[in-house]
Amino acid sequence: MNKTTSGIGPIQAIAMTVTTFIGTGLMVLPALSVSIAESYTVYSWLITTAMVVPIAIIFALLGARLPHAGGASHYVGQAFNSRLQNALGWVFLSILLIGPAVAIKIAAHYLAVFFNIHYENKISLDVFGVYLLIFILFIGFGLAGIETSAKAQTAIVIMLLIVIVWLGFQGNAAEAIDLVASPTKVTQWQQTLSAVSVIFWCFLGIEVMAHLGAEFRNPNRDFPIAMIGGISIVIVCYLTIVVLIFSYGVFGNDATNNRSIALLVAHIAGEQSSRWFALGAFLVAFANVSIYLLGFSRMLQAMANNQAVPAWLGKVNKGGTPYFAVITVNVVCILSLVISEVFHLPMEVLIEMTNGTFITIYMLASCAAWYLLRGKVRYIAILSILTCFFIAFHIGVNMLFALLILIISYFLLDNKKKKYSK
User: Fold this and answer.
1) What are the distances in angstroms from CA 61 to CA 13, 68, 86, 278, 388?
2) Domains along the chain?
3) Of 48, 382, 359, which is closest to residue 234 (Cα–Cα)?
4) pLDDT in tens, 379-411
């Protein structure tokens, strides 16, 4: 099934791209990157963006020419074989076990601040009440369908951009740019590049937009606009916050970094604005995670159509939404969140494992692009592959999670497919 709805235009597509990249990362990445690279952070962001561009272009080309709910796994299947396609689908779904828990915790933290709930790193009925509320909203958004979610995200993006522009003017971002230094020595370049692995978290989500390529009204026109236009807006927003955080000195230890934007707002607008900013931060984080979960649901639907999972997961309602897939995805996220809370799993490890999973997906999709695309654009696929190798090298041992999922899924899927096809 290559087409599900036909309601997303270029403006909503850009909004969805922006909310995919600007979410929980906006609350922590600017301060974390400044803590590492300090006055050279702007160059760290520009370098990371340059590294991401080949990957973004590859997915834009694939999404425009081969729109499909299966996204990256569909491209791999077209280039190689169905077993590898389904195995990559399982790799993507394995992110549900590690990635969303991090983002949901951050979203819950800001919502708890708005409700004046004291958030601690231990099991609490109040905190789980916040989690429950968030998942009810996730399921509601998922069942409402992609067009409803896209419209809501468009409104959220508009509010977010207004806030960032306002902070930029009120905080004198133009003057703060003068504090940016250019790396010239080897040690300075090492410090600059050391922040790239952290900043890359911002751009996770390229493949989710590819999964939703079939939702666009005109994929050949709207998908490239969404990817390139969205990334341009994203980098401007992040750089604005980065220079302001460095200018006001709201970075350093973990406690400061995790609430750096709230501290920045307090410096610029006063303490009373913090609570309302927390609500806005939650909405941004919620929009970010909801588009991820919609992408996961569509991926599960595509796998059901390929007989890699039970067929009932591919059933859709009158609006074209795979309702069983939506509910299943949210249930898995709930279990993952409970496990991470009970065992106090470090966020740093979860983030690195998530990065490794995404890099595996990007690398295989880039390899598929080499076979599927024609002309000079194939050289962009080579750049994308090299970028993935560079980042995978820095992730190190935490790449093993994704690689093990890929290998196990590849050798077990053949029997599963026979079982589900009966």
Assistant:
1) 15, 13, 22, 37, 18
2) 10-420 (1.20.1740.10)
3) 48
4) 999 999 999 998 888 788 889 999 999 999 888
